[in-house]
Amino acid sequence: MPSSKFVIGALALLAAAISTGVNETRLIRAQRSLEYGRRVAVVLAGPKLATQNDGSLVLISGLVTSNAVVLDSAGHVLAQTRAPMVMDPEFGVAVRGVRLLRRVEMLQWVETSHTSTSGGGGGVDGDAAADEERERVFMYSLRWMPERVDSSRFDNPSYRNPAQDGEPWLFESATVTAPDVVVGDFKLSDELIDQIRRRVDVSLDTASRDTMRNILDQRVGESWRERSALANVTIEEDKYFYWRQSQHSHFHHTRRTDELGDLRVSFTVVPPYAVTICAQQKQETLVPFATPRDEGGEPIFLLDDGVHSVDELFDLRSESKFRENRFSRLFSGIVGFIGFLVLHPLLAASRVGKLVFRESTGAAMPVPVVAASLSSSFTFSVAAVCWLRVRWGH
């Protein structure tokens, strides 16, 4: 038994060390690449194309707009607009923006569980825990979920969600991106647009719906109304389209109540506004900039909301990388904590362990506290070694 505990504990500590080393190395590479980009980036006074910057890492700021040509329902050119427009005729939505996101949710059963302890009427020598019984309790609730919940794995088979055989939902989530999205003279790829964080809910109040219908009539033609889903849905809270089972069953109910299998649809839009981009200029496009291997080797392809200087943009991304790494350190710390818990009896039996755990004095620290302290020290020691290797190597 001691040998098996030693193996398990040692493997846990090895896993914690490897995990910490890999994640810290990744963070170091990212930070070195960002520092290199900070040094070599060419700041443009405006988002204007200049051939001498081709192949360079450039930083630009400007308003997200569009070079799209506006056509009428017959295909004739109406105008060339700088205001990007995104539309979803199926629901009569047309708004100014870079990207329109349709979110479809179904009301489904969701299973949760917890462990309940009962009994404990007094066991041998007053040990109440001897009679305790632990039971896993499953609970079910109806929730709006954007993805299919597999009810075949539920503990109670009487709770069954619709659309379990892979059949598609009546409506599906979708994304519409405006054509020819640009910042000044530079075209934006989908990868850059993906980095825009701002989202605005699309209002479905009466005035907004009237405006959107007029835009669709002008740009798509009135035929969109016949193909839309508006006749089969209701609008509530000026935000959601609802498709309800009760309204499409043989027994029609006028009362609006949420039922299993109902669908609700909402929209958010990425609005056109100022952004700052740092990427490699390749003619009129922006592509990832490859940093030299000895400078980190990580590509630089950054976009952030608002107007920023070089230092501000790179500081924001650097802080973001450190925040992400905290979760990796926490995971490694938990694995190390488990390892030290398993190794505790073996460590406590050693001469050094007796000094640390102090079991022989009757004033021992709680084992979890000691394991947590050792795990924290172990994790930060491995991280420190990774950073010192970089400093000594350069």
Write the layout of secondary structure elements.
Layout: H1 2-40, E1 42-43, E2 57-66, E3 69-71, E4 77-80, E5 85-88, E6 93-96, E7 99-119, E8 132-145, E9 174-177, E10 181-183, E11 186-187, H2 190-193, E12 200-201, H3 206-219, H4 224-227, E13 234-236, E14 240-243, E15 263-270, E16 274-282, E17 285-287, E18 302-305, H5 310-349, H6 351-357, H7 367-393
Parallel strand pairs: 1-2
Antiparallel strand pairs: 2-10, 2-16, 3-4, 5-6, 7-8, 7-9, 7-15, 10-11, 12-15, 13-14, 14-15, 16-17, 16-18
Helix pairs in contact: 1-5, 1-7, 5-6, 5-7
Could you explain how this protein is built, in words?
This protein has helices at 2-40, 190-193, 206-219, 224-227, 310-349, 351-357, 367-393; strands at residues 42-43, 57-66, 69-71, 77-80, 85-88, 93-96, 99-119, 132-145, 174-177, 181-183, 186-187, 200-201, 234-236, 240-243, 263-270, 274-282, 285-287, 302-305. The chain is an alpha+beta fold and 394 residues long. The chain has two domains: 2-53 and 309-393, no CATH class; 99-177 and 199-270, no CATH class. Strands 1, 2, 10, 11, 16, 17 and 18 form a seven-stranded mixed sheet that branches. Strands 7, 8, 9, 12, 13, 14 and 15 form a seven-stranded antiparallel sheet that branches. The protein starts with a helix and ends with a helix.
